[in-house]
Structure formats: structure tokens, C-alpha cells
Amino acid sequence: MKALLVSPGWPKGRLWGEMSFHFPSLSLASVAAVTPAAWEVSFHDDAIAPVDLEAEADVVAITAMTAQAARAYEIADAFRSRGRTVVIGGFHASSLPEEAAAHADAVVVGEAETAWPRLLRDLGEGRLGRVYRSGGPVDTAAIPEARRDFFRDRRYLLTNTIQTTRGCPHDCEFCSVTAFHGRRYRKRPVEAVLAELAEMRRSGSFVFFVDDNLVADRRTALELFREMRGMGIKWLSHAPIDLAEDRELLEAAGESGCIGLFVGFETLSEAALAAMGKRTNRVASYLENARAMRDRGIGILGSFVLGLDGDGPGVFDAVLGFCEEARLEAAIFPILTPYPGTKVRARLEAEGRILSSDWRDYDMEHVTFLPKGMSVRELEEGYDRLSRRFYSFGSMWRRLARLHRSLQVFVPMNLGFRSALRRTAARA
Fold first, then answer.
1. Residue 182 has pLDDT above 60, yes or no
2. Strand-pair partners of 209
3. What is the per-residue pLDDT across 116-165, written as a single tens digit (0 to 9) for each?
4. FRET label pair with 279: which of 52, 76, 242, 323, CA 20 to 30 Å apart?
């Protein structure tokens, strides 16, 4: 029996569809790890090359985020027209299982580690159901090591991706992580993570922790960082800006090899932070905290949400000014996107402000709702202008001119974003 696992690509002509560097799908590698031994498993990343629709497979499993949903459905429909059994899962399908079911023989809602083996058993016995649910949070101690062998000989920036926790204890209005996991925050045993890191170290020194909030449990994070010292690993992950206020934990992160963190600043407005439920952020301490991270050798990929209800046309210059003053090594500027299942979508629907449910435009570059403080055109043009100015050579020089250990990652990242933005503009 053959199972083909497919990660759909992002739309071309959009920023994430034009990026030259790619990261592998750890979720599908985890699905492969729990696939019964009787199954022969293969993997394809549609972002690197179009999937072979004539591939032999008894079941095709596809995972997708919202912006990938249209491509996922296109692939699913093509395989089904050829008589293949298709399963769809992931964030988008978990929020809209009825929509996904129109393009699949079965839908997996929520985490797949327990549902997938059950689905394959039913498929083998000729009684495949329509919807499979995990039946509760997966025991993170029982999650096996991901099948990273799939990622060899592919054009990935790095293949050493790992997850040590799932979920986030916070409840930000716009976040799809909470919509998928709830506010449950679960941890893998530190000893299991360390063993996996030691094995991964053989294939390279760079590691990306895909955790949505690596440091939400201070005690566990501190233990992990201390045990990682001396392993020779250079790593990146996600963390809130208030990590910088815990100097012991921040020092331990830097000493363990952290060279970069994705940090959600979100906005320069305290009122907007309160409205979205971002309790970890204080605008007054942004500059000091960014400096504290840099002093420990940790670069920052900052994120600022554009189009919040308090945002007017002046927000773009204000954000750029802050980014350059803080000397952020990189940044993204997602337009507020009302993803299915999130609180912000429910609120905007209730207010009659959703303009489109064309999932291709849910790429954080297009406006799909009615803004309050500016027009749709002003918001999209402001996003484009801000992104181009931030990734201009002048801004890169102002932010990256001083030597810092994180530059080995952030200089290529800046050039990659700049090139992708230029290709996106050329396709417009």
C-alpha cells in the first residue's frame, strides 16, 4: 500500500510564493512517522516542483494553510478525477471541514498523530469515514521523531526543524494557533528533545524550532537551553518580546546558540494591543528589549500587523521609523487577515466587514475586510511601500551595518525578501 503526502505551494505572484528559500513541512514528516510499517510513504513539496498527478498511490494526503487551500483543492480534485483516494487536513480544513470534504474522500480535523493511523486502518478495511478527529490533545511524550529523510536532496534552506511544544497559552484575537489548539500548551520531555537534537546535529549545525511560543513554560525552556550549551547548535524560533525582561532565561537562550527569534511586536499602539489580547507586549519597552536581545547575539525578525482598527495612513512611516531605530535585523508586515476559526473573523463577520473569502488572497498581502482608518487601496499600497522601503539597500545598511553573529542568517534573509518582493512586483 502506498501513501503520498503532499504539501501544496503558495500562489505565484505573491510574496511567499516567490521566496527562493523553502522550509520543509514538519507536520507531514510527523504524519509519516506514525504511518504503519505496512505502508510505503513518499513525500512531495509542490512549492519546489509541481506534483506528479499520475503518481501511483492508494491514498494522497494533503495539508494546507488557508492561503494554500485553493491549490490544495486543485491537487485534490485532480487526484480524485484519476481515481485516487484523497485526505485533507491541516489548519484550514480543521476550521472548515465541510468545505474541505467537497474536495476529499476524508478530512482530518485537528492533530493527525492519532487520527491518521485510524483512518488508514479503516481505509484498508473498506470502511473509510468522512471526518476523523483526534479525540483530544495528542500526548506529546508519545510523538515519535519526524521522518526527516524525506527532506534530503531537496532545495530547502535547512532540514533540521523540530517541535518541542504545541500551542500557546495566550489568546490573541487574530491568531489561528489558538483556534487550532485552543489555549492548551503542551511540552515534549526535554530528554527526548535533546536526543533528537543530537541526532540532527549530524546533518548540520542550524536548527529551527517551529514552536509557536518556545518559552511559555519558563522552567522547561531554561532546562532545555542549559542542556543545549556546548552542543554546537545555532538555532532560531519564535518568542514574545517580554523574553528580554527575563535576563536569566535570555542569557541561557543566547548561550545555548540562539541567533534569531521571530517576535510579534504587532503594533505600536497600547490600545490596539489591549484590544487584540496581546498581554505580553508593552510598547514603552520595545526598544530596550530589542537591544537586550541583540546584546546576547540574538537577531530579531519582527512582525507588525497592519490594518488594525486604530491604524490610519500614518502607521506605515511610524512602523518603518521604529524598525530602523530598533535596528531590527528583519521584519514582515502582514495585513490583518481574518482566518477561519479566529476571533477576529467572528467579530468582522458580525460587523459585516468581510469583503472576500477567496482564500488565495488570505496571504497577508491583500485586504479581505473593510478597514476603519483607511481605504482598502490605502492599506494595500501602504503595505507595498513599507515592505519595499524596509528591504531597500539603504534600510538594510542602516540596520545591518554593524557586525553581529546573527548576520549569517539575516543578511541572506534580507536579500531573499528583497528579491521576492521584486519578483512579486514584476508579476503584478
1. no
2. 162
3. 999 999 999 999 999 999 877 788 887 888 888 888 767 787 789 999 98
4. 323
Tens-place pLDDT, residues 16-25: 989 887 888 8
CA 31, CA 398: separation in Å to the nearest integer? 43
What is the fold of 160-427? pyruvate-formate lyase- activating enzyme (3.80.30)
pTM beyond 0.90: the answer is yes
How many residues make up the chain in this entry?
428
Distance CA 251, CA 296 (A): 7
Domain locations in the chain as residue ranges: 2-133, 160-427
Q: At residue 178, what is the residue type?
A: T
Under a CB-based contact definition with an 8 Å cutoff, are residues 249 and 220 in contact?
no
Architecture of the domain made up of 2-133: 3-Layer(aba) Sandwich (3.40)
CA 400 to chain centre: 25
